[in-house]
Amino acid sequence: MSGLSTYEPKSGLTRWLDKRLPIIRLAHDSFVAYPTPRNLNYFWTFGAMLSLCLVVQIVTGIVLAMHYTPHVDHAFASVQRIDRDVPFGWLIQNIHSVGASMFFLAVYIHMFRGLYYGSYKAPREVLWILGCIIYLLMVVTGFLGYTLPWGQMSFWGATVITNILGAVPFVGESIQVWIRGGGSIDQPTLSRFFSLHYLLPFVIAGVVALHVWALHEAGQNNPAGVDVKSKADTVPFTPYATIKDLFAVILFVILFATFVFFMPNALGHADNYIPANPLQTPPEIVPEWYLLPFYAILRAFDFNIGPIDSKLAGVIGMFASIAVLFVLPWIDTSRVRSMRYRPIARQFFLIFVVACLILGWCGGQNPGLILAKPADFSATLTWVSGGEVRSEQFTAPSEGEYEEFAQAQRDRLAEQGATMTSITRENARTATITGVFGGTQSTETVTGATPDAMEEAITHAKEEVGSGAAFFSVERRSPYTFTVTTLSQIATFYYFFFFLVLLPLLGLREKPGRVPDTIAKPVLTEQGAA
Amino acid sequence: MLRALTAAAAAAIAIVGVAFAAAEAEHPQDYPFSFDSPVGNYDMAAVQRGFQVYNQVCAACHAMEHLSYRHLGEEGGPFALYRVRDHETGEMTMQIGKPEHGGTFVDVVDNPYVRAIAEEAIISDIDPNSGQLTDRPGRISDRFRQPFPNEIAARASNGGAYPVDLSVITAARHGGADYIRSLLMGYSGEVNGTLYENRYFPGGWLAMPAPLGEGVVAYNDPEVPQTVEQYATDVAYFLQWASDPHMEERKRMGIVVLAFLVVLAGLMYLAYKQVWRGESH
């Protein structure tokens, strides 16, 4: 909070400096005397962790860039060289790759914290939007960085993501070529991705400075969501917040170190240890875990919406899911910040968190994977064994009359006593009709858990009958299937429903719980009661 | 109520997810490798034997382009040499592998074992005097000898199939060393043209014929059985080491780092309690 500065330079040198560049005063007011709400919980320590992550990523990244070669023929080998031969290269590389995951883990908790406690509401709208920009930059930086090791997942992930941009109407293809530096992912892509991956973290650092500035202007929100009213509500940042942040950061570093030293590859994909091969598509293409929810939203749109085809709809959905965060301060109509005092909104918020987790899970699965179905796939085979087989060719008078004419041919053979008929169409007007006369008709029903299994069962059944039958008539029945795509459609629907319908309406309809008058009041009474 | 519904939905999804996990190939056998646990090291005798199997069998087709002979004798490598002082006689002796305690690491340049391994390989190089291609014995700075000059030659010699590079193979396959070991033992003996049935391979048929057989590699240690299972286990050890040569150092350092951090977290917690003592929050 801006207010009168309490900084008093103690020595001659600091007095001299304070008149010329009050940088110590700035640091003192921002990180020492800065008044912090006394009721902050551990969710308010993630800012410190995120600052640490940014510094760690930049420092390790600069060292890695000294050893890395951004060339399609050498990138994979240079990462291997870092892991094997550069002194402590294995450590630096592990910290950098695990660090990206830890960065996103912390930022997601930080964002959910903001959503739950209403940290985006006035007067913190700009603070929130700056945070959204940082997140967007992080997503881009993370994606660019994942391309650099030039493994199979790097290459194909980059192919899929840049393909997405091609869905944009009119300019999509031009943008795609511009970003790739050519028609496909190749050397120009790697060069520019490396250059941008080096640049963007410093842009992030700049926006972080603005984010912290905005934070210090508006003051921190707090779990009660009420404004700071007096000095009794706050404690000075140092030592109170500093020591609590430090403790939480060390717990975070313990988790970080556990991954770095004991499971450095647990968060990555095995395929990225296969060098990129443009001629061989991997069996599954998945982004890093932290982008899976958006990948699921992208793939949830497997249907056209009017003139918008499914691909473009997916792209719009994916970008809208982030864009909606930018306007959140104005769509949430509730004047109560903290969901502690919003009994109904809180429950919907918990479902929202689950929906996000479900989207993350869906993003990593095969979209066609069947989760549940009322019955197996089944098919009925009908054939005639024995009997006399007769074939003849016929020509319909015109293409339009073909169906009618074919049916007439069937009826004719049936009248002559055919047990079964089959027609093989040769072109628009001519076809061969085969009829079996006499013999015994049999049927068999086969089932399978998947369409493939059913086809296998059909082939098997046909083989068993063998040449005893001239031909088979097969009727396939597919049950309704609940697939990963269906699940992600439900979760995607809820994602947007939460922001666009629930938050605007709940704010008008919900009766909030009693919000305390000051921060100090509930804190001090609770302490007194205990 | 909503919360209960949410929990039920999450549980249902978790169960369904497990039940429908796609199973294409058979899951690899879980073998108790010495490096499995968070503190487990490599069984270096097995890594050495595994190198012997690679060198005498796999290397005929599979390259390991990211490894050099010197890697074998660097600290943490299977042929790292140590100078050890005998407690009773005071004599200095040389020993392959890190001794229980003490011992000074001998730089790989002075490691006769690694030098001998490298010199056995015939490396194609440019003659420094004539500029023509020539063969020479390997040096420790050489990369592992590549069996084929390029991918086309490799495919031509293997019925169109490309024998993959094995440098990081255990990291590049789901199941890691367990998968490699199972795959090498998983041949049924069925042959279909140029494909061989293997229940651990995705799709069930692969172009590589069963590479190992009883007694194909002669081990020096008479105690170690010369069976397909033993060869497969040993070569899986070697390939795991090749993928992750700094694992022992990494885990050792990890223990120290975690111990330090846990103590630091304890101190920080006490400091936090001390600072906030008397402040309600």
Structural write-up:
The complex is a heterodimer of chains A (530) and B (281). Chain A is 56% helix and 12% strand. With 530 residues, chain A is mostly helical. In chain A, the strands form four sheets. Chain A has a three-stranded antiparallel β-sheet with strand order 8-4-9, with helices on one face. In chain A, strand 6 (418-425) and strand 7 (430-437) form a beta hairpin. With 281 residues, chain B is α+β, with helices and mostly antiparallel strands. Chain B folds into three domains: 29-67 and 154-245, Cytochrome c-like domain (Cytochrome Bc1 Complex, Chain D, domain 2), CATH 1.10.760.10; 69-142, no CATH class; 251-276. Chain B is 38% helix and 12% strand. Chain B has helices at 2-19, 44-56, 112-120, 151-157, 169-172, 176-185, 228-243, 247-276, and strands at 81-85, 92-96, 104-106, 122-126, 133-137, 187-192, 195-198, 205-206. At the A-B interface, helix 4, helix 5, helix 10, helix 13 and strand 3 of A face helix 1 and helix 8 of B.
Nutshell version of this structure?
The complex is a heterodimer of chains A (530) and B (281). Helices cover 56% and strands 12% of the residues of chain A. Chain A is mainly α and 530 residues long.
How would you describe this structure in keywords?
heterodimer; A: 530 residues; mainly alpha; top7, de novo designed protein; three-stranded antiparallel β-sheet; 17 helices; 10 strands; 12% strand; B: 281 residues; alpha+beta; Cytochrome Bc1 Complex, Chain D, domain 2; 3 domains; 8 helices; 8 strands; globular
Q: Secondary-structure map with pairings?
A:
The complex is a heterodimer of chains A (530) and B (281).
Chain A: H1 12-20, H2 23-31, E1 35-37, H3 46-67, H4 75-84, H5 89-116, H6 125-147, H7 152-165, H8 172-180, H9 187-218, E2 234-236, H10 237-262, H11 292-300, H12 310-331, H13 343-363, E3 370-372, E4 377-385, E5 388-395, H14 402-415, E6 418-425, E7 430-437, E8 440-448, H15 451-465, E9 469-477, E10 482-483, H16 484-509, H17 520-529
Antiparallel strand pairs in A: 1-2, 3-10, 4-8, 4-9, 5-7, 6-7
Helix pairs in contact in A: 3-5, 3-9, 3-10, 4-5, 5-6, 5-10, 6-7, 6-9, 6-12, 7-8, 11-12, 11-13, 11-16, 12-16, 13-16
Chain B: H1 2-19, H2 44-56, E1 81-85, E2 92-96, E3 104-106, H3 112-120, E4 122-126, E5 133-137, H4 151-157, H5 169-172, H6 176-185, E6 187-192, E7 195-198, E8 205-206, H7 228-243, H8 247-276
Antiparallel strand pairs in B: 1-2, 1-3, 4-5, 6-7, 7-8
